[in-house]
């Protein structure tokens, strides 16, 4: 799904939503990952039985969830959010101290004044399935640099 730059409604600023699904975007890597996942499930079942199979399923899905399943992203006037298989994370613009731009992502950095922010780095917004220039302009609109 491509990014969608939404027009502002009454009292709201512009917003952008997009989906990132690496499993579909990288077929060669996905084939190798699929073989490794199925192999680990078989090995768990073969060595330990149903308990080993269940443990292997839980461990592989926990570790590879963001790769195997789609992630949904949204940037709007309230902040930025990321929703994956296991969690939903939302940061408001007031919590952020800045951002870093990478070739394939924009990292929203938490304000480093708090201990929590120093431990938790921020929110990574991958730009693979969105218009990176529009996303950067939107982030600059809500989080101007000094």
Commentary on this structure:
- This protein is of the alpha+beta class and 146 residues long.
- It folds into two domains: 14-20 and 70-142, PH-domain like (Roll); 27-67, no CATH class.
- Helix content is 42%, strand content 29%.
- It is built from five helices and eight strands.
- The chain has helices at 22-25, 27-48, 50-68, 115-119, 132-142, and strands spanning 4-6, 15-20, 71-76, 79-83, 88-91, 96-102, 105-110, 122-126.
- The strands form two sheets. It has a five-stranded antiparallel beta sheet, with helices on one face.
- A hairpin with an 8-residue loop joins strand 1 (4-6) and strand 2.
- Helix 2 (27-48) runs antiparallel to helix 3.
- The protein is elongated, with a radius of gyration of 19 Å.
- The chain starts with a strand and ends with a helix.
- The model has no long low-confidence stretch (mean pLDDT 86).
Give the arrangement of secondary structure elements:
Layout: E1 4-6, E2 15-20, H1 22-25, H2 27-48, H3 50-68, E3 71-76, E4 79-83, E5 88-91, E6 96-102, E7 105-110, H4 115-119, E8 122-126, H5 132-142
Antiparallel strand pairs: 1-2, 2-3, 3-4, 4-5, 6-7, 7-8
Helix pairs in contact: 2-3
